[in-house]
Design a protein that fits this description.
Strand content: 35-45%
Bound molecules: calcium ion
Number of helices: 3
Oligomer: single chain
Length: about 240
C-alpha cells in the first residue's frame, strides 16, 4: 500500500468511527427516545403516564417514591425521589430536598408550549421546578444560580400558587406564572411571569387582577398548581 492509500484508509476509518459515535447520540433523543439507562423506579413508587417527554411519539411515565437510606449515618432519613421513565426504558431521577412533612406531588407541563417539558414538584409549602432535557431531570435555577422555588403558602410573601398564562404584551404567548392571592379587604391576584429557557428561569412582567370573593375562580386557581387544562390534583402523581 502506498503512503497516500494508507492515509486515505486511515481517514475512512476515522470517519466511520466518528459516524458510529455521533449518529446514535443524535438519534437517541428524537427518533428512538432516550437510550435506556439508570435504575427503574422502586416497586412501591406512585406512577402515572404523562405526555411524550422525549419526543419519540410515545407517552412516558412520571413517578414519585420514597426510600429509607439504610446506612448507619443516615439515622433512618427518608429520601424522596421524583423520576421519569421513558417508553424507551430510560430512567432519570432526582432527590427532592424538603423539610416539609407533606407528601410530594409532581406535575409534568409544557408551560410555554414550545416542546420543553417541566416537572413541578410540590411539598405543600413550596414547589421546586425541574426540566426534562437531554434525557435527564435537571434543576431549574434563577439568574443567581439558586434553585427556582415557588412559594405556595405566602411564607416568604412570594406567592400562593402556580399557573400558566400570558401577562402583558412584552413577551407574547403562554408562560409559567407565579400566583399570589391576597385578601386585604379586597381579593387580588398578582401574576408574575416566569420566562423559561432550558434550566434558566427569569422573572418577567407582572400584573394584578381584582377578584369578587374567595370563591372567584381566579382566587381558587391562585391557591393551586395548574397549567392550562392540567391540575396537580387531577393530573399529577402523589407520593405513596
Ligand atoms: Ca416518549
Amino acid at each position: 500500500m502506498t503512503g497516500t492509500l494508507k492515509r486515505r484508509a486511515l481517514l475512512l476509518v476515522l470517519l466511520l468511527v466518528a459516524a458510529w459515535f455521533t449518529v446514535p447520540a443524535a438519534r437517541s433523543f428524537a427518533a428512538g427516545g432516550c437510550t435506556p439507562t439508570g435504575a427503574p423506579p422502586p416497586a412501591d413508587a406512585a406512577q402515572r403516564k404523562v405526555r411524550d417527554l422525549d419526543w419519540d411519539g410515545r407517552p412516558d411515565t412520571l413517578w414519585v417514591a420514597q426510600s429509607r437510606d439504610g446506612s448507619p449515618s443516615s439515622q433512618g432519613h427518608i429520601d424522596r425521589v421524583v423520576g421519569v421513565t421513558t417508553a424507551s426504558g430510560d430512567n432519570a431521577q432526582v432527590e427532592v430536598a424538603s423539610a416539609s412533612p407533606i407528601p410530594l406531588a409532581a406535575l409534568a407541563i409544557d408551560a410555554q408550549q414550545d416542546g420543553q417539558h417541566q416537572i413541578i414538584v410540590s411539598d405543600g409549602r413550596s414547589a421546586q421546578l425541574y426540566v426534562f432535557a437531554d434525557c435527564k431531570l435537571q434543576t431549574v435555577a434563577d439568574n443567581q444560580g439558586a434553585p427556582f422555588l415557588f412559594d405556595l403558602q405566602n411564607l416568604r410573601d412570594h406567592g400562593t400558587g402556580v399557573g400558566c398564562g400570558d401577562v402583558g404584551p412584552s413577551s407574547p404567548g403562554r408562560h409559567l406564572v407565579g400566583l399570589q392571592a391576597l385578601n386585604e379587604g379586597l381579593w387580588t391576584v398578582r401574576r408574575t411571569e416566569i420566562d423559561l429557557n432550558g434550566t434558566l428561569a427569569t422573572i418577567g412582567p407582572s400584573d394584578t387582577v381584582t377578584a369578587a370573593s374567595a370563591q372567584d375562580p381566579a382566587v381558587i386557581s391562585a391557591q393551586t398548581i395548574s397549567c392550562g387544562d392540567l391540575t396537580l390534583a387531577k393530573d399529577g402523581v402523589q407520593q405513596p
